[in-house]
Amino acid sequence: MLALLWALARPELAITRLLAALLVLLALAGLYRHVQRTNVTVARFVEALRHGDFATRFSHSGGASFAELGRALDGAMRELQEERTRDAEELRFLQSLVDDMPVALLTVHPGGPVRLANKAARRLLGFADVLDREDVAVLGATFATRLADAAAPSKEILIIRLSGGPQRVLLRVGTLERLGLPVRAITIEPVQATLDAIEVAAQTDLVRVLTHEILNSLTPVTSLGETVAALLASDPPDLDEARIAVATLARRAAGLQQFIKSYRAVASPPVPRKRRFDAADLAAELARLFRADWPEHRLELEIAPGLVLDADPDLLAQALINLLRNAAQATGHGGQIVLRMADRPAGATTIEVEDNGPGIPESLRREVFLPFFTTRAEGTGVGLNLVRQIMVAHGWQVDVAIGELRGALFRMTSA
After folding, report:
1. Do residues 400 and 410 lie in contact, with contact meaning Cβ atoms separated by under 8 Å?
2. Residue 46 host element (H or E)
3. Model pTM?
């Protein structure tokens, strides 16, 4: 270009001007070709990235002379390829985990079909990968309603029709987000066999306790009946002794009647009406009631500041009154009793009633919650069973252990 400018200043150098102009045109053409090749190479590299082809490398030949850029892009591409390989392996693991998990999993997309997400779901329900309306209706109307209702309960037990007949199943529902849309994930766990086993065990325990208590009441009634018959059959009849025996017989029959009434009360499970309320207020009210009935006992309150309970206050108070009364009876005059209420991790709540009495032997800790089971001669065996029923109705757990005071520790824990 300088030569062309120099030649243009001298009219006598026409051939030189022509030659310089030709060389300038050739240089411009070469530069254009060089830039064009580099642009094409970069464009192909970016296109490979867009399509996820991480095996592509930046070409250093054919006009692509950006050596430092090429090395940097090649390094980034290798890292992306390694990361993609790791992600693919993790994805295969998660897919295998979902597909082989023993719990049936369904996904429900808004306005879309119901998909069976793993093998357990396909085995349990007996369908292919997708359930249409007719398939869902076959499984049961309630089940179909739950699948269609986005506001269905997060956990419930219902009956669906499977290949082996109607069965109770536990439904758990969670909501995820996929591509900006809510997707419900539903697990189905057959619990019929477990419930049957629990029912049989409960019936066995109940029959054992009932027969024990009824026989204990019927034995003296039978004996008194025979005594009355013998007194009336004597010559002359001993009416005074017969009257005493009949009065005793009436008292024992009344006791048996009261026992049956208690059984009927136990057979009616409570229905909680939950609301949020301050734990300190409930504890203060229980303390006033307890000190009015047991002034010689020492009741200590350990309530977490600001603790709020989500429960039926009346039923919860009834359960705690039963536990406090049992603790007072177990400790005797001057006993020490502690009522604790505290938060636990993950939003759970713990309520404890502890005493310094003799405690409950480990062999009896399971049976103390059975209806009519009692270790006291004057006990009815209904109180602790009522406590358990109230906790179960709330979805809480209750257990008994040995506390720091070396006596009984009843612990109730929210779900």
Report:
1. yes
2. helix 14-50
3. 0.46
